[in-house]
Amino acid sequence: MYDDSLTKIGIAGVGAIGSAVARAMTGENSIEGFTLDCISDPDAKNTFGVDNLDFETLVKRSDLIIECLPASIVPALAETAFRANKDVIFISSAALLLYPQIVASLMDSDSTAYLPSGALCGLDGVTAMKEMGIRESIIASTKPPMGFSGAPYIIANDIDLSAINEKTCIFRGNAYDASKGFPANVNVAATLSLAGIGPENTQVEIWADPAAKGNAHEITVKSDYSTMTTRIENMPDPANPKSSVLAAQSIVALLRNMSNALVIA
Ligand SMILES: NC(=O)c1ccc[n+]([C@@H]2O[C@H](COP(=O)([O-])OP(=O)(O)OC[C@H]3O[C@@H](n4cnc5c(N)ncnc54)[C@H](O)[C@@H]3O)[C@@H](O)[C@H]2O)c1
């Protein structure tokens, strides 16, 4: 679908992740078959030489939209894109759990939504294991305590992050509740749940560790024939300490896969 002609890309949100994707699209090693047509971001520091438009116009102009927004803004973009039957790559996967109307309007459209692996690894194994039946799916995410500042769960439970002086589990629950409590921190849990056995059945542990230098995610997935454990450690993105450089590169890798003759999935 994306290899016959030049596919016009619109990026919604050019903060840490959107800018990294725009740089990859406009740099020397740009992505064959794709061209950056426009962006949408009222606070863009760099427009990458293309028009900065509202969502409605961006959607009209683009063949494929890349979402790199705060989760709360995602429903407005998704609704506009799916009404026009346009395809969307979502990096804010937690938004799909937080705002069920996104998946409902996707199902009512002819659009395809893509979820890149983001800051996680091992989703290839999860999707293959899903075919044989997953019995258990657990993710444990560890970050420095202040990485959770401002999260609704921290505020609602009056947790003093500055008082945490040893590795502490601050949340245990399912991926759905984790997304509500930590919408900017647990996109990985949302993605794992959507790839595997769903948000109600995917178990999440969130750890605050003053000794952690970056963000670590460990997943354990069990089926009758395979048990998978993966761990990835990501240093904070200098452009946004709540993100990781890997998340942006997972979008770039997805685009390259969509244009390659040899597809690694
Ligand atoms: N899937 C994953 O593993 C993963 C990993 C890291 C981050 N994320 C998510 O990716 C998203 C983007 O992260 P980031 O680090 O680039 O964030 P960021 O804060 O650096 O960038 C967000 C950008 O969106 C722009 N924006 C805000 N409101 C807008 C609006 N109404 N219209 C257009 N643009 C608007 C802001 O100006 C900003 O430039 C976040 O939701 C984050 O939680 C996902």
Question: SSE layout and pairings?
Answer:
Layout: E1 7-12, H1 16-26, E2 34-40, E3 51-52, H2 55-61, E4 64-67, H3 74-83, E5 87-90, H4 94-98, H5 101-107, E6 113-114, H6 123-130, E7 134-143, H7 152-156, E8 168-174, H8 175-181, H9 187-195, E9 203-208, E10 215-223, E11 227-234, E12 236-237, E13 240-244, H10 245-259
Parallel strand pairs: 1-2, 1-4, 2-3, 4-5, 5-6, 7-9
Antiparallel strand pairs: 7-10, 8-9, 10-11, 12-13
Helix pairs in contact: 1-10, 2-3, 3-5, 8-9
The chain binds nicotinamide-adenine-dinucleotide.
Nicotinamide-adenine-dinucleotide binds next to α1, α9 and β13.
How would you sum up this structure, described in words?
- By secondary structure, the protein is an alpha/beta fold.
- It has ten helices and 13 strands.
- It is 32% helix and 27% strand.
- The strands form three sheets. It has a six-stranded parallel sheet, with helices on both faces.
- α2 packs across α3 and α3 runs parallel beside α5 (101-107).
- The radius of gyration is 18 Å and the shape is globular.
- The protein binds nicotinamide-adenine-dinucleotide.
- The site of nicotinamide-adenine-dinucleotide (NAD) has 30 residues, from α1, α9 and β13.
